[in-house]
Amino acid sequence: FLVEGVCSKKLELNPTGYKSPTEYNLNFKELIIVTEDNLKLFGWLIYAKKNPQNANTILFFHENAGSKIYS
């Protein structure tokens, strides 16, 4: 299930440009996806700049160890 939340990682410790979508003026929401086996996946829902209600959705899972901000 999907829960709105705050990422537990210390994103402010990351280098400039890799901390948050706010660095790029993006409208976003932090989310936590809890899996059936209770694993918590942290992520960002970034809205389209134009017509977000009509925009396609891209769900991207990367294999980075530990942080969604390094890809």
**What is the average of the pLDDT values?**
75
Radius of gyration: 13 Å
Helices and strands, in order, run as EEE
Total of DSSP H or I helical runs spanning 4+ residues: 0
Helix content estimate: under 10%
- Indicate the structural class: mainly beta
Q: What share of the residues does DSSP label as strand, in percent?
A: 15-25%
pLDDT under 50 segments (min length 5)?
Answer: none
Strand order of the largest sheet: 1-2-3
Q: Tell how many strands the DSSP assignment holds.
A: 3
* Intertermini distance: 25 Å
Biggest pleated-sheet summary:
3 strands, antiparallel
Morphology call: flat
What labels would you give this structure?
single chain, 71 residues, mainly beta, three-stranded antiparallel β-sheet
Summarize the structure.
Helix content is 0%, strand content 24%.
How would you describe this structure to a colleague?
- With 71 residues, the chain is mainly β.
- The protein has no helices and three strands.
- It has strands at 2-4, 28-34, 40-46.
- The chain has a three-stranded antiparallel sheet with strand order 1-2-3, with no helix packed on it.
- The radius of gyration is 13 Å and the shape is flat.
- The chain starts with a strand and ends in a 25-residue tail after the last strand.
- The relative contact order is 0.25.
- The mean pLDDT is 75.
